[in-house]
Specification:
Number of domains of chain A: 2
Radius of gyration of chain B: 21 Å
Strand order of the largest sheet of chain A: 2-1-3-4-6
Helix content of chain B: 40-55%
Structural class of chain B: alpha+beta
Number of strands of chain A: 6
CATH superfamily of the largest domain in chain A: NADH:ubiquinone oxidoreductase-like, 20kDa subunit
Largest sheet of chain B: 3 strands, antiparallel
Helix content of chain A: 25-40%
Radius of gyration of chain A: 19 Å
Strand content of chain A: 5-15%
Shape of chain B: globular
Distance between the termini of chain A: 58 Å
Order of helices and strands of chain B: EEEHHHHHHEEHHEEEHEEHHHEEEHHHE
Oligomer: heterodimer
Distance between the termini of chain B: 59 Å
CATH architecture of the largest domain in chain A: 3-Layer(aba) Sandwich
Number of strands of chain B: 14
Strand order of the largest sheet of chain B: 1-2-3
Chain lengths: 257, 428
Amino acid sequence: MTTRPTLAVHKFSSCDGCQLQILNMEDEILDLAEVIDIAYFLEATRDARPGPYTISMVEGSVTTEHEVERIKKIRQESTILISIGTCATAGGIQALRNVADADEYANIVYPNPEYLSYLKEASPISEYVDVDMELWGCPVNKKQLLEVIVALLQNRRPVLPQSSVCMECKQAGTICVLVSEGVPCLGPVTQAGCGAICPANGRGCFGCFGPQDGANTDSLSDILTDIERYPGETKRLYSNISNFAPAFYEATRKLTD
Amino acid sequence: MYEKIQVDALARVEGEGGLYIALEGDSISELRLDIYEPPRFFEGFLQGRYLQEVPDITARICGICPVAYQMSSVYALEKAVGAEITPSIRELRRLLYCGEFIESHALHIYMLQAPDLLGHESALSLAAVAPDVVKTALRLKKIGNEILRTIGGRSVHPVSSCVGGFYRFPKVEKLQELLPDLRWGLDAAKETARWSTTLDYPEMDVDYEFVALTLPDEYAVVGGDVLSSKTGIIPVEDFVSVYPEKHIRHSNALHSSNASGEPYLVGPLARVNLNHEKLSPQAKAIVEELKLEFPITNPYKSLIARAIELVESYELAIEIVENYKPEGPSHVELDLKVGKGCAATEAPRGLLYHDYEVDEKGFIKTAHIMPPTAQNLARVEEDLRQLIPQVIDKEHAEATLDCEHLIRSYDPCISCATHFLTLDIKRK
């Protein structure tokens, strides 16, 4: 038993939703705990052991100096480091502060700003350390989490979707909300993985699994800006959960309010 | 005798916090619940967003209780633009909330607090000796997640809620497929409530001011006015002036108190104590069977309150699903205009207050959110002050664990509590 690989789950600036997805594996977690030694997972256990760890999963973005130091230490202690969720892979919703134009903020007032300590930008984990694998999603898909852990235990490459959300709509038989109803949707440029749940619920995708490789945002932006339901809708779609992902960041910059 | 109790990173809580207590002889020279979860400035970047984007954004404040954030948002924004939702929409919102209560309470009862009462590090170590208990817990929790998934597409950050209602109603047959599990869950929840009263809780008796929402005809979760055990009914519009917030140096979360500067308690214990007469019939029957007497004033026994609410949530979910026949549109049309609105709902951890101002096109001018854990922080610190004399003669490790257990019994969600330090943007 002592040779079991170890798993550590670390939290940075985030909502806890991605690590909750591990606890949400109600059917698998007890079996999982048999084959992998959960050595550090504060949300689940007081039994917090020091590294090194075989696998470290990191939730959240880096937003303080202290977190910069922590992630460097975790990198040193971990054979495999995996960013889980859109905060860890792209900065997440709190990276909206990065895209704010500093000149626009004439005055920033906190109740007692001198009590606070934080970095100007909320950054993905890969900004500070090498990352071995990234799992996107807000939240991350628990089946993908499980697939990655199992694949690593079996020493094979994990099988993860490579297509856009559009493919998941087609597979589910969901009628295209963009084509049939003119509802703005980021499905064509967003990485699959959520199961296309927004179109299935009668609304457009807002990109929480981040941009798909090679996404043609220029073309989609041309279509979406013609069907906006309120001014700046297209820009705000990109500038949401995955706003700091490079492809969406660029797409946002090309649009006006 | 030791000089301090220090927990650098609290386990089995949501988010990041630590505890520091310095002692001089038998007295406390310093006590701090350090909240070092970094601020994420939600109220800042909500400014300028379109109102329909708000529930998707506020959900990201908390992965454990996203529905609470969505619901307080949509009710406050509906009030701001004067929208009236239909009874069908309200019933579905109540059902969505049942899913969140079940998921969150089952998690806390069995996986976060029970290990303390049973002498375990975690539910995983508990599973080695009591696998059936943990399997029941996981199934109870999973059913809550299934409700959320059926209505909202997924359990963490569901996607179906909008200002005005739902993007689409779920199909009747999809909800009815949940009924066998819900009926199993109701029985298992009753067993949980029975089991919860057999646990060996540390002794503690606190003179709390309980604060929770109240409604005339139901156990208040979705909307209502505010009820205090000390001062009676407070219109939700007056909540912020009656319970002001302040910024404490050691905390990235604001602290709340009543007008006299004293802490108050929100959450399951406050709700059950104030509203137990409005519980659903079977939840009430369990209360009678177990001969529970109110008010319950021991913070550790909030686990019992959660178990009662677990019964309430399962029973209510069954009732709503059995009668679910959606009528009218899934969301009402919004007539956008300048306005401001506030609303509160009961998150699993307690009263969650939101207020917003919107402009004539539906864009957010200001946003303000008071999460339950922030409201409870001053209360936890006071409880710890009361606890210290009782544990001071124990072994250091045991005293530390007692302090941690007290904090965990609040089910603090530190991620929520620190979302909201205000970034006040003044444009040129």
